[in-house]
UniProtKB/TrEMBL annotation, chain A:
<dbReference type="Pfam" id="PF00528">
    <property type="entry name" value="BPD_transp_1"/>
</dbReference>
<dbReference type="GO" id="GO:0005886">
    <property type="term" value="C:plasma membrane"/>
</dbReference>
<keyword id="KW-0812">Transmembrane</keyword>
<protein>
    <recommendedName>
        <fullName>sn-glycerol-3-phosphate transport system permease protein UgpE</fullName>
    </recommendedName>
</protein>
<keyword id="KW-0472">Membrane</keyword>
<dbReference type="GO" id="GO:0055085">
    <property type="term" value="P:transmembrane transport"/>
</dbReference>
<comment type="similarity">
    <text>Belongs to the binding-protein-dependent transport system permease family.</text>
</comment>
Automatic annotation (TrEMBL), chain B:
<dbReference type="InterPro" id="IPR003593">
    <property type="entry name" value="AAA+_ATPase"/>
</dbReference>
<dbReference type="Pfam" id="PF17912">
    <property type="entry name" value="OB_MalK"/>
</dbReference>
<dbReference type="GO" id="GO:0008643">
    <property type="term" value="P:carbohydrate transport"/>
</dbReference>
<dbReference type="GO" id="GO:0005524">
    <property type="term" value="F:ATP binding"/>
</dbReference>
<dbReference type="InterPro" id="IPR015855">
    <property type="entry name" value="ABC_transpr_MalK-like"/>
</dbReference>
<keyword id="KW-1278">Translocase</keyword>
<dbReference type="GO" id="GO:0140359">
    <property type="term" value="F:ABC-type transporter activity"/>
</dbReference>
TrEMBL record, chain C:
<dbReference type="GO" id="GO:0005886">
    <property type="term" value="C:plasma membrane"/>
</dbReference>
<dbReference type="InterPro" id="IPR035906">
    <property type="entry name" value="MetI-like_sf"/>
</dbReference>
<dbReference type="InterPro" id="IPR050809">
    <property type="entry name" value="UgpAE/MalFG_permease"/>
</dbReference>
<feature type="transmembrane region" description="Helical">
    <location>
        <begin position="105"/>
        <end position="128"/>
    </location>
</feature>
<keyword id="KW-0472">Membrane</keyword>
<feature type="transmembrane region" description="Helical">
    <location>
        <begin position="265"/>
        <end position="283"/>
    </location>
</feature>
<comment type="subunit">
    <text>The complex is composed of two ATP-binding proteins (UgpC), two transmembrane proteins (UgpA and UgpE) and a solute-binding protein (UgpB).</text>
</comment>
Amino acid sequence: MADITSSVAVPAPTRRRIRWSLIGDHAILIAGSLFMLLPLLVLLQTASTPDLETMKNGPGLYFGDQLDDNFRKAMFEASGFSGANTGLSMLKNSLILGLGFAFGKIVIGMMAAYAIVYFRLRFATLAFWLIFTTLLLPLEVRILPSYEITQKLGLLNTYTGLIVPLIASATATFFFRQFFRSVPEELVEAARIDGAGPVKFFIDILVPLSQTMIAAMFIIMFVYGWNQYLWPTMITTEEDMYTLVRGIKQIVQVLEGNEIPQYGRANVLAIISVIPPVAVVIFFQSWFVKGLTESDK
Amino acid sequence: MAQVTLDSVRKIYPNGVEAVSPASFNIPDGEFVVLVGPSGCGKSTLLRMIAGLEDITDGALSIGDRVVNTLDPADRDIAMVFQNYALYPHMTVRKNIAYGLKNRKTPKDIIAQKVDEAAKMLNLTDYLDRKPAQLSGGQRQRVAMGRAIVRDPALFLFDEPLSNLDAKLRNQMRIEIKALQRRLGVTSVYVTHDQVEAMTMADRIIVLNSGKIEQIGTPAEIYHNPASTFVASFMGAPPMNLVAGELDSGHLSFAGLSLPVHADHRGPVTMGVRPEDLVIDPDGQLHMEVELVEELGAHRLLHGMVDGQRLTVHLTKEIKAHTGPLRLSCHPDRLRLFHPETGKRMDAQMATQPRTQTESVAS
Amino acid sequence: MKRAGFDSRWLPILLLVPQLTIIAVFFYWPAVYALKSSFFLQDPFGFGQTFVGLENYTSLFDSSEYLKVANFTVLFTVLVTFFSLALALLLAVKADNVLRGAKTYRTLLMWVYAVAPPVAGFMGLLLFNQRWGPLMELFGHFGWEFEMGADYSDTAFAMIMISIWKQVPVNFIFFLSGLQAIPKAVREAALIDNRSASGRFWDVTFPLLAPTGFFLLIINITYALFDTFGVIDTVVRGEPSNNPMTLVYKVYVDGFRGNDLGGSSAQSVILMVLVLALTVFQFRMVERRIHYT
């Protein structure tokens, strides 16, 4: 006994338990995935099928061959009156909104967060509260006066008017403040001993340290900006300023308007409005999830 | 209470890595067995297989007279104390301790009685209504113990339960756990990487290295007769001195030392000797150049070189020492020989002669 | 503030100026403006305004239409919040259980996060299309003549379904990360203490997810109140008429379409108070919430 037995050990037949519960788990997950995917599949199917067929029979089980044709129409033919809102122009505006918003929000947020966390400031508390009160009221509840003011400033139908008012909330500032506070204190002390001033410290140390956080924020903010609807609806009245998401209402009208509704073309535009943000979220999944779930702490 | 038997229990991970090579041993009822080894040696995996938290790839595990390979952890009649205590943070101490009983449909009054008993035993009575976050490390450790003992399990499992405590508390808890186990008489398997814990707590020690059992034995056996250079250097602080010697025609030679042995092996050999088995001897054959005297109060350690090889000597506090040359001798009984390549012990018979004679032979 | 901050006087001010300017112009000014307008009656032709005190507010509470919208908003919020949380929790628990395909499931269950609400509404229009919508046909098989846009409750049903679909991913992501934050050893301890999987879930996992769930509750209420605007606007095709709508949508309709700046501002202020109350409630709860450490 108690030996490293060299005796012929007859391995007991380890019965593999069939895990019914695991099969159930997979079934639920597959059902859930299908629930999420179904609308997209219908969208894709109708976008690739001739409109007449869709109108007669509704979405079928097979994808058609009209995707190219619909894509060309959607991208290069205007759907409005002035002829300016082709898919391409809307895509451009969406990109400007998404990127401009993300960039502006991060730069301004980081600067403010740096000031609040790393400087002795007499009115620091006041600045903090002024900034963080903005977390309390979403743009939607002050939409009308915001519109009036933007109009007064002559910013209707401009990219500035589209982007800057959306930046007037402190989510990114708050996020970076939390992150900066978690950076070890010793780092500033070491940097000061090494002769780095506040600007050097920010550029040489803090920004590189924040890379992942910046990436995560960028993804979240890009998606948020791209997906804006209410504000662009109010602020852009000229068709050449429409974004894809803002144009969706008009797409709906196209759907309804014609004798044979142009489902295919409209759906291609809907798909194009979904692809960039979805792609970003899928490809940078881990950053995105990290940024999202850490922003609540 | 029960005995535990492992018959060629083996673990292979899906990626093909064999975490535990077929292991067979038996733990009699009431014995306290410590699994010890460096991190990654498979000791925790072995424990978790006994607990049912990991699947057993091959072999048979029985607790009492049941083969439990396919039983859920909750059905194995075990209790486990985890490294990070794994207390339920949202439950009070009382609920934490009672939770396992509650799920076994134990009547309320018996639960209350058992919780109170355990709390008294562990000095937790005043803390029963607190949440784990409001307790100190040592108290949390006790709650984890309490959760285990109220269940009256057939088997206790401990997964490095003391590694998160500071040194002083660790010493204290070590004694408490051991005393508690004595009192309750429950078969226990205890995993640690700390050889002091292993030596002081175990009835029997199982030393593991890269998934294989190196040696099974009582603390004294393991300490004095290590089965391999691995065990020799892992157990004991400071570890056994291991130096390269030479065996030929009935003589073991190392530096100036030459001892008669009965061994068939010839050629290079690894020679092992515990630091306390080297004694200062003005006529000794070993010439040591002492480089450092480590003062430890109750004793001293001398570190230095003998013939280009590093050696440590343990001296009682009465014996003064200083750096510089020194002569040592060693009783041949205390020498252990290991195969230079495999590291396994060689059962060479030392020629047992009185010490004086050894020296005269040597001189 | 960090213990070892910098002492520069002008730099922090320079750093704060852009943020403070933007929020002053586009946050505080509009907020104050809304508050002020809510006490005035706007001349419909744009010639000045008259101070009317609380009249804009009282007329809202006397308006059966406003109360109807408020009622619907409450119902809508409760249903969307409950079902998107419940569904996401179920999926997160399952996704946390499986090893095989975990990453694929995660992707398939979260991509909808990036779909804009009006586009979600657009997809809903397809599924519930009156001529050939697959869901409409499905309901038809069960004898339910689904009429989106014409029937009040059918339209409400579609709005709720779409809003839930859109919100499941966020909740899923948070629940999954909450589940993964539960120490492995605690789950293992539960495995030894309790043989029933559902017992372990309700006794250990669920309470440990409570902080995440509470945070999500607030997020979801906010979502249902505000972010569903795009869904609703698309589903009603910009023509609310007899269709259900939420309070935020009414602010927009009355103010932007109806040119009732005073009434719309009063509605904005009511929503502001609602959000403030919600936030204060959240902070109070966060303070009291047990920090499991």
